[in-house]
Amino acid sequence: AGIGKRVAMDLARRNARTILACRNRERGQAAVEEIRAATGNREVMLRLLDTASLASVRAFAGAVLREEPRLDVLVNNAGVTGLPFAITSEGLEETFATNYLGPFLLTNLLLG
Predict the structure, then answer these.
(1) What pLDDT is attached to residue 62?
(2) Within 13 Å of residue 37, how many CA atoms lie on the same side as its CB?
(3) Whether the Cβ atoms of residue 82 and residue 89 lie closer than 8 Å to each other
(4) FRET partner for 17 with CA separation of 20 to 30 A, picked from 40, 44, 87, 102?
(5) What confidence score (pLDDT) does residue 90 get?
(6) Positive or negative, the Cα torsion across 55, 56, 61, 67?
(7) What does R_g of the chain's alpha carbons equal in angstroms?
């Protein structure tokens, strides 16, 4: 939703192979279908990613590195605010992990 969806729509309109990295499979797939229908680009894909989970970030990055021949643009757009204080299963504060640690790790893993 929001800025991330707008950026993905623009990239798809430019005929880019576009990967939507989403926490929620149903909402992500709905966005994929909407973007495909609006742009005619069949190369819009969904991959699951929760930036609050470093294990999820590592799995996502590993799949991208294995399966994609190249990566030209990375848009780190995940972010939350106003969540109640919570600790992830990895012992990290959830908002900090989602907004900073996860995107930082993802970028560094994808640099190759």
Answers:
(1) 98
(2) 6
(3) no
(4) 102
(5) 98
(6) positive
(7) 14
Is 109:58 a contact under the CB 8 Å cutoff?
A: yes
The mean pLDDT values, 10 residues at a time, for the chain of 112 residues are 94 98 97 98 98 98 97 93 95 97 98 83
Give the chain as a DSSP string.
-HHHHHHHHHHHHTT--EEEEES-HHHHHHHHHHHHHHH--S-EEEEE--TT-HHHHHHHHHHHHHH-S------------SPPP-B-TTS-BHHHIIIIIHHHHHHHHHT-
What does the block give as tokens for 37?
Answer: 């229908």
- Supply 82's token pair: 């106003």
pTM over 0.90: yes
Contacts for 100 with CB less than 8 Å, ≥ 6 apart: none
Protein fold of 3-111: Rossmann fold (3.40.50)
Q: With beta carbons less than 8 A apart as the criterion, state whether 50 and 23 touch.
A: yes
